[in-house]
C-alpha cells in the first residue's frame, strides 16, 4: 500500500498545540485518513506519538518539522521509536521554515540536502518523508529524495503543476485552508486573521506571485482576490468543491 492509499482523500491539519486526544479520536471516527500536525513539531515527536497512541489506524503526518529547529539525529531516533510501535502510520513532513525568522543560516536547498543526508545515515527511508517544497529546485529535491511534497498556501493550478513536474508515483499532498461561513465579510475577516502573518514571509509571497498574484495582491493583509482564492470560504458544498479542485 502506498502513502497515497494510506493518507486517504482528505485529512485534517491542526497545530500541535491545538489538538487533543479526543479531537484526534473524533477525526478518525469521521473517516479522515490523516492528521497533519502543524506548528513545527519538535524532533522528539512526542505530540505525534501521543495521538498515534490514542487512535487506531489514522496516519499522523508532520506538517512540518523545521530543519533549523529540530536535530536530524534526534528526529531519526524518534521516527524509529514510533514506527516500531505504529508501523505505516507516521509520515515525516520536513521543511526549511522562513529566512526572516533565522538570524544566520545556510541556503535552504543546501541545508535541506545536508539534513536529508543525516536522515539517510540514520536509516530513515526516503519513502517515509515528504518535503515542504514551494520552489522548483526544492520540488526537484523532493522528487529525488523523498516521497513527494506537502505544499502550503498554494492554488489548485499549482498543485496540478507540481504533479506534472514531479511525475507519476510522487506524492503531492497540499494544504487547503477553509472557512465555513457564508457571509463573505466575516469569512474574509477570519481568513485574513490566519493569512496575514504569512504575507510577511518571502517564501510564501514569492510562491503566490508564481501562482499569478501581483505585488499589490500580497501587500498588507492581502487583496480580496488573494484571500478568496487562497482561503476557500462559503457553505459546506463550496468548501468541498475547493478541496476537490486539488485532486
Distance between the first and last residues' Cα: 19 Å
* Superfamily (CATH H level) name of the largest domain: Luciferase-like domain
> Taking all residues together, what is the mean pLDDT?
96
* CATH architecture group name of the largest domain: Alpha-Beta Barrel
Gross morphology: globular
Task: Give me the number of helical elements.
Answer: 11
Q: Total strand count, please?
A: 10
CATH fold title of the largest domain: TIM Barrel
Low-pLDDT residue intervals, each spanning 5 or more residues:
none
User: What oligomeric state is this?
Assistant: single chain
Keywords:
alpha/beta, 2 domains, 6-stranded parallel sheet, TIM Barrel, 247 residues, two-stranded parallel sheet
Amino acid at each position: 500500500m502506498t502513502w497515497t492509499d494510506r493518507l486517504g482523500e482528505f485529512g485534517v491539519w491542526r497545530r500541535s498545540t491545538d489538538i487533543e486526544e479526543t479531537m484526534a479520536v473524533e477525526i478518525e471516527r469521521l473517516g479522515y485518513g490523516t492528521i497533519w500536525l502543524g506548528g513545527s513539531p519538535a524532533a522528539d515527536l512526542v505530540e505525534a506519538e501521543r495521538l498515534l497512541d490514542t487512535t487506531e489506524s489514522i496516519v499522523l503526518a508532520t506538517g512540518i518539522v523545521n530543519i533549523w529547529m529540530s536535530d536530524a539525529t534526534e528526529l531519526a531516533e524518534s521516527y524509529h521509536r514510533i514506527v516500531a510501535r505504529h508501523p505505516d502510520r507516521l509520515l515525516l513532513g520536513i521543511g526549511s521554515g522562513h529566512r526572516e525568522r533565522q538570524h544566520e543560516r545556510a541556503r535552504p536547498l543546501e541545508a535541506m540536502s545536508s539534513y536529508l543526508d543525516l536522515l539517510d545515515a540514520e536509516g530513515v527511508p526516503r519513502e517515509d518523508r515528504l518535503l515542504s517544497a514551494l520552489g522548483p529546485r526544492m520540488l526537484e529535491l523532493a522528487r529525488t529524495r523523498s516521497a513527494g511534497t506537502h505544499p502550503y498556501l498554494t492554488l489548485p493550478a499549482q498543485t496540478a503543476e507540481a504533479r506534472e513536474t514531479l511525475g507519476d508515483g510522487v506524492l503531492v499532498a497540499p494544504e487547503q485552508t477553509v472557512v465555513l461561513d457564508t457571509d463573505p465579510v466575516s469569512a474574509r475577516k477570519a481568513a485574513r486573521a490566519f493569512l496575514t502573518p504569512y504575507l510577511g514571509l518571502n517564501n510564501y509571497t514569492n510562491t503566490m506571485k508564481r501562482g499569478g498574484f501581483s505585488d499589490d495582491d500580497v501587500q498588507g493583509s492581502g487583496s480580496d482576490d488573494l484571500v478568496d482564492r487562497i482561503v476557500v470560504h462559503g457553505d459546506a458544498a463550496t468548501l468541498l468543491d475547493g478541496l476537490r479542485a486539488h485532486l
